[in-house]
Hints:
The protein is of the alpha/beta class and 513 residues long.
Amino acid sequence: xxxxxxxxxxxxxxxxxxxxxxxxxxxxxxxxxxxxxxxxxxxxxxxxxxxxxxxxxxxxxxxxxxxxxxxxxxxxxxxxxxxxxxxxxxxxxxxxxxxxxxxxxxxxxxxxxxxxxxxxxxxxxxxxxxxxxxxxxxxxxxxxxxxxxxxxxxxxxxxxxxxxxxxxxxxxxxxxxxxxxxxxxxxxxxxxxxxxxxxxxxxxxxxxxxxxxxxxxxxxxxxxxxxxxxxxxxxxxxxxxxxxxxxxxxxxxxxxxxxxxxxxxxxxxxxxxxxxxxxxxxxxxxxxxxxxxxxxxxxxxxxxxxxxxxxxxxxxxxxxxxxxxxxxxxxxxxxxxxxxxxxxxxxxxxxxxxxxxxxxxxxxxxxxxxxxxxxxxxxxxxxxxxxxxxxxxxxxxxxxxxxxxxxxxxxxxxxxxxxxxxxxxxxxxxxxxxxxxxxxxxxxxxxxxxxxxxxxxxxxxxxxxxxxxxxxxxxxxxxxxxxxxxxxxxxxxxxxxxxxxxxxxxxxxxxxx
Length: 513
Ligand code: NG6
Ligand code: CA
């Protein structure tokens, strides 16, 4: 009898534990997701990836408490295509018109296409985007005085507070949901890329009015003492102050997170910094915090933003229920158009770390970026060399949220969730890298097809990777892509060229071995 009772007790307890386990798993399966997406931050730009002339304690904390990837990639070596892929799970090079977008570009993503934000909405999340957008807004011709529609709200976001394009492009105003913030209807905004409009001074004609001078391009309308790409008139009251931008984005992000808490909903926040893109104009409290000038100081400011968000998660006791992903939209650039001391004061800092090239480049420096995943209690801290790409976030997070993707949704996105959570060191077998042209990674091999074009972008002093002959590198032995092995391994190169062509034609299919 007592035997029977104890058997029941054991069974009962087992049942209770099993149920608790299920509950825990269910809870663990629906974390908040905070995606921190920085701009132009290179592999070697943060101290947990080896930087010494700048310290990024908050990013380092993420690395210490999470999983730091050494072979993670943005989808492209510039912003717009990387963001297109991040949000759609589709390689941007499949679609025309996904190059660096103008300030007055209409929305580039078709609202019918399923996005990462849609996936979260399907799972019952509240979704927000705060910061740099650079994927176009509204319909052509874009009128910044009216409703900017369609935009992120048609792509699965419940809330948006945006810098429409880049810091160096007009219009220099914020957009909240459908409208320019603080716009005076009696002072309408007009912008032009190409033909000058209005009679406001330009950097070209009035360099004496500038607090930051261009090194190349960037010499059109002067806003806040800085000449930009493009002409702008009107919207005076709505214009941003570059120095306040990081504070503004943090404030709006925290307000969004608070609204999610009030509504008792899990959140997905795509927090997209302007730092460290040009023009690099940090808040005065960060000026001089590194020996590297504004480029270093903006890294510190970016790190401060990360710290503010982590602090809020701690304060609200939700750090363990929040999956944080930290990354960047493309590789680093030093002089990207302004004379901001970044070249003179670089010292021995290596923005791309050990990788060759940088922003705009098909070499590894173009797309191999910092990538950290933190989820306390779920992701074991460490370092992973799994090959993963930001294009994979859609399928991987859909899998985490148990949202089924229909065929055609996120067509290039691979479910690498086990790698992201550190349960496996196996990521992708293949990855198509993209700058102007495309290249293929297969394990630690890299094949770059022959491509005409300049070897170096002289303005920014970055090797682009164009060459009349194909290039084959073995990154395990030669991380700096210095020894072209195409003569030694012509068969491997041919096979990889074939696979690359195959991927161009067949998204997500596995090429026959
Ligand atoms: C380039 C700009 C560069 C930067 C880049 C976009 C010139 C000469 N250069 O065309 O300064 O704005 O576009 O950067 O205009 S990205 O990170 O948004 O892709
Ligand atoms: Ca960028």
